[in-house]
Amino acid sequence: MLFSEFVATRLNDVSDRTVAHKAITSFLASLVGLGETSVENQLGVWIASMIDQGLSLSSRDRYIKKLNAIYREYCSEFGADGNPFDKVKELRGLEGAVCAKQLEAEFSNLEKIFDVLLVDAKTRPELAVFLYMLFNVTTDIESVVYLTTESYRQEFPQLNDVINIDDFHHSRKYVFDLKQSRKRKPQLVREVMAGIELYLRMKGIRQHESQTVKLILALWILKARKTGVKLPDIKGMLDVIPEEFKYLRFIQSSDLTDSEKLMIKHRVAKAFSPSGKRWYALKIRRRFDFEYFRKLVEKNLGNLYDEETLFYPYRQVTSRVDKKIVTENVPVIPDVVFFRVQPRNVRKMDALVRSENIGWIFRNSNNIERDYSVIDAGSMALFQRMIGIFTQDMKIEMTPERPLSIGRDVVITGGIMEGYRGRIYDIKEGSDVRRIYIRLSDRYFIRAEAAVDEFYVKPIEEANTINA
Q1: Which end of the chain has the smaller Cβ count within 10 Å, N or C?
Q2: Residue 159 gets which letter from DSSP?
Q3: Average pLDDT of the chain?
Q4: What would the mean pLDDT of 161-186 be, rounded to a whole number?
Q5: What contacts 343, CB < 8 A, 6 or more positions away?
Q6: Same-domain check for residues 139 and 250
Q7: Which residues contact 328 (CB under 8 A, 6 or more apart)?
Q8: Cβ atoms < 10 Å from Cβ of 322
Q9: Same-domain check for residues 263 and 289
């Protein structure tokens, strides 16, 4: 029997109000997702977790003594050799200089200004360097400063607006426009770090030891812990352990693959900035025009606004008025404005729209409690490209009719599946035929695959109209 299993069997033998019960539950909780490993490493992760959670040295010592007593019982019953508790003595006596909770309070200002930071980084390349290092959890600032456009990989949607690959051209060598060819490396790196430090200091963020690199690592570790990344995985991601997280140096790091590291990076990046900006749409009332709304947003949400925030496409219409040729701009879809913001900022836009009684933001259904409707980025890009080649034979209008989509209740009106009813849960594009997988029964959830011509797939309400 493994020691962790033996500890779990003792849980029912102690009262839930005792120190022993708290020690056992704390130990078992630290092992979740850890996998098979030595008792010594299990103890290291457990003690490091207690330090990370801010437990005092005296409380940790009481917990460790209780678990040590259980280990002696385990040895007497199963004959285990040695005592791994002797090998974690240095970690046991370690005082957490700054635990994660304290760091969270200290750096809470970063979360408050992060949206502003993303906007400012568009025009201040040293801030773009800071964000790139933060998301990639790298300490090699020189390599980032001299990162070339050829080696850059667009991995984080949060940085798409900060680092716009459309701005890359054959004569541009470096990702960050820092005038690299005019300055020596040591001087340029110092200037970049000084620019970052000054910006953060002006925003009320105090830095430890006046070192930007250690600040970045501390911020990343804090966010990683907040999102549930395990301590061994965090250590496996880092080349340097900041002094504030010294306890991580005493545990065994996870052996992570490149794909696993990238997944963790994305997970933490999402904690800083949910998933980059997304497209939404709002309906404005007829008595308001777009220019009035644009100025209102710029005035009240200036920290979120830039020239790409709002999209209200026009087309030019030429007509003859009193023997004169008149050209005017006509909205492609009247009274519907598209806007692009971080998911966390949609409510700010909604509050502004409501307070001025301008209109409403589209939601997933006609219910104020439902989530805001997110427009697929790929569909929006195709739409914008189409607008760019707009011709008179194109017809674009807003329609209440919903397309056949995932989650739609349908009935098959012809072909080999005629008469079947179900709900579309997946659609695979083909040439002329969509291969639709239909859930035949809400009770059995059986998957049935059949090639059905889209002509025969009708929404339930439409099929009823046809039959009538």
Answers
A1: C
A2: G
A3: 76
A4: 82
A5: 274, 275, 278, 374
A6: yes
A7: 316, 317, 319
A8: 5
A9: no
Q: Which residues contact 279 (CB under 8 A, 6 or more apart)?
A: 338, 339, 340, 374, 375, 376, 377, 380
Q: Are residues 149 and 216 in the same domain?
A: yes
Q: CA neighbours within 13 Å on the CB side: how many for 117?
A: 26
Q: What is the pLDDT of residue 275?
A: 58
Token pair for 29: 């909780």
Query: What is the DSSP code string of 308-369?
Result: TSEE--EEEEEEEETTEEEEEEEESSTTEEEEEE-GGGHHHHHHHHHHTT-EEE-BSSS-TT
Q: Tokens at residue 200, please?
A: 């953060």
Q: State the residue range of the domain holding 181.
A: 103-272
From residue 126, give the alpha-carbon distance in Å to each of 10, 175, 320.
55, 11, 54
Per the structure, how many domains does the chain have?
Answer: 4
Q: d(Cα 363, Cα 405) in Å, to the nearest integer?
A: 17
Give me the DSSP letters along 250-269.
GSPPP---HHHHHHHHHHHH
With bands split at pLDDT 50, 70 and 90, how would you rate the model's confidence at 467?
A: very low
H or E element at residue 280? strand 278-284
Measured from the Cβ of residue 63, the count of other Cβ atoms closer than 10 Å reads 21
* Phi (first) and psi of residue 19, to 5 degrees: -65, -35
